[in-house]
Amino acid sequence: MHAAKIYPALLAFFAILHPAIAQNTTTVTPILTPIFTAQVFLGALVGPISIYGGAQVVEPITHGSINGTALNGTISAGGAAAIGVYANQTVHKTFVEVWGKTDDGMPFFVQVNGIGGVTGQFGSASVTIGGRYAYLEKQFILVSLTDNTANPPTAATIQGWLVSRTA
């Protein structure tokens, strides 16, 4: 079939479906449930490392703690890397990795990918853990990362919320 005949037919078909599709949409409201707050302590900054358009800063995480309804434990170590710290004080990407053990001895590993400014970022966390905590591996966890006000920062707070939705 010639394209000149197919395209008008497809457009007519989708125009007929569009009102039906629009009527069946529902608004989904996310529900945020606080599940943990982590406090991490930072070692000496590595960098800034010059990159195109800005710099990368790496912050070793020396230790910390995590407390909340979903997880309680000790953070053994980790690191954070902010990529793209520009003159206007924006951060395009933040990566954080921490590991440790829960209060009952279960090892865990958490990766955070975020975005935001120098004073704080938002992102999502992926948790690798087993046992009674294994359900966290399949959840969407929103996090907020905030450095303390020291220059350079000596500690950071990571707050986590479980994201669920209304039906």
Alpha-beta classification? mainly beta
Q: What is the approximate shape?
A: globular
DSSP, total strands: 9
Strand content: over 45%
Q: Determine the fraction of residues in helical runs and give it as a percent range.
A: 10-25%
Q: Main sheet: which strands, in order across?
A: 1-3-4-5-6-7-8-9
Main beta sheet = 8 strands, antiparallel, barrel
How confident is the prediction overall: mean pLDDT?
81
Low-confidence stretches: none
Radius of gyration: 22 Å
Based on the structure, what is the oligomeric state of the protein chains? single chain
- Total DSSP helices: 1
End-to-end separation in angstroms reads 43 Å
Q: Note the run of SSEs as H and E.
A: HEEEEEEEEE
Organism: Friedmanniomyces endolithicus
Keywords: Signal
Signal peptide: 1-22
Protein name: Jacalin-type lectin domain-containing protein
Describe the protein's architecture and organization.
- Pfam families: DUF3237.
- It comes from Friedmanniomyces endolithicus.
- This is Jacalin-type lectin domain-containing protein.
- Keywords: Signal.
- The protein is mostly beta strands and 167 residues long.
- 13% of the residues lie in helices and 57% in strands.
- It contains one helix and nine strands; from the N terminus they run αβββββββββ.
- It has an eight-stranded antiparallel beta barrel.
- A hairpin with a 5-residue loop joins strand 3 and strand 4.
- It is globular and about 40 Å long.
Short overview:
This is Jacalin-type lectin domain-containing protein. The protein has 1 helix and 9 strands, in the order H-E-E-E-E-E-E-E-E-E.
